[in-house]
Structures are given as structure tokens and as C-alpha cells.
Amino acid sequence: EAGVAQSPRYKIIEKRQSVAFWCNPISGHATLYWYQQILGQGPKLLIQFQNNGVVDDSQLPKDRFSAERLKGVDSTLKIQPAKLEDSAVYLCASSLDLPSGGTNTGELFFGEGSRLTVL
Amino acid sequence: AQSVTQLDSQVPVFEEAPVELRCNYSSSVSVYLFWYVQYPNQGLQLLLKYLSGSTLVKGINGFEAEFNKSQTSFHLRKPSVHISDTAEYFCAVSALNTDKLIFGTGTRLQVFP
Questions:
Q1: A111–B46: do the CB atoms touch at under 8 Å?
Q2: Concatenated DSSP letters for A4-27?
Q3: pLDDT tens track of chain A, all 119 residues?
């Protein structure tokens, strides 16, 4: 079974430039997450999708960050304009929804991440 | 809201020695608890999870963790570590009936020969 695919693995940009990251979740996983992991910190949820709808984007800095999942499969996360403090690893994860009435037990499957350096 | 505290940012240990990585959580509701491992330049991988039932949970690679509700802890243990266990370990919590994971800041386990 193929895992969560992310690209690019590494990106270096200057502040005020824009960048986009792509994620393709595990086939059949309806829920997709973007996490930001700053060096020395744990992953922080930026946005959660279920199919192509947003479930939680409360911690997404909407003035510069945007994300979409138009067809309910792959997703893109964009930063424009980038700031120095956006330097981090951006992790995409997906999870399997249980049948109606079930509970997602919280097991997320992560991609290898996209490391962003803003100079 | 839930929160997770990992008191040790780094744990150095010699190969074949036992290790314990500490995790405490805070929540006003019942929770699920998880340990994830992150090897260098890789994504996070589930090590083990506590959902209900036995408080002693066994995971992959010989790791186990014990849920202690009274102490709100979920410490990770391994009786004998290997060089290959060198990695970052994250404790995480989610409230029941949600799938939103809250992560701790991580503990870097460094195993020396």
C-alpha cells in the first residue's frame, strides 16, 4: 500500500516569496491534515479536511496561508508571502474514517514532510 | 482542551540499557493516547496507542507504555534499547470522538554504543 506522498521534500525561498506544497493521501482516506513542525517543537495542526470540506482551520494564519482539496483527494498548501518564522517542516497526514457512528481512533499516517527554509 | 507535556527534551542512553520517556497530559474529558516515532528525515510513525482496556500497551520494536489515569501519565518504556532506536519520540492525545491530535514537544532519544 502506497503511503502519503509529499513534494517537494526541500524548498528554500526568500522572505516575501510564495511557495506551494502538494500532498497525496493514502487511497481511501477521507481525512487529510496539514501540520507545521518548527524545529524543536511538536507538530501543530494547521488545517483538517474531510473529503473536500474544511473541518478545522482555526490555527491556520489565513492572511498568508491557504489550502485546498478541491476533488477530495490530493491537497495543496500555499504560503504567500513567506516570513522567516515560516521556516519549518510541513507534514501532511491522512486517516481512515470509520463507518457511520464509529470513532476515528486517531491513527494518522504521515508523509515524509516538506522542509521549508525562508531566508 | 487537551495538552501534552514531555518533560525531557533529550535522553541519552547506552545500548542495551533500559529507557523511559515521560509523558503527562491534561484534559477535562476522556482521551486516547499515542506515541509516535520520527526517524531522521522521515515522517511520524505510530509506535503504540491506548484506546481502552488494559492500561499496559505494547507497540512495535519492543516498546510499551502504561496509562496511569490518576497521574495523567503515559510513559514509554523499553527494557533494552538498540542503536536503531535513536529518533525523536512524540506523545500525543486526542479527545474521544475526535480525530484531532495534540502533540507534545518531543523527546530525542540518543543511543550510544
A1: no
A2: -EEE-SEEEE-TT--EEEEEE--T
A3: 679 999 999 999 999 999 999 999 999 888 999 999 998 889 999 999 988 899 899 999 999 999 999 888 999 999 999 999 999 999 999 988 654 445 556 678 999 999 999 99
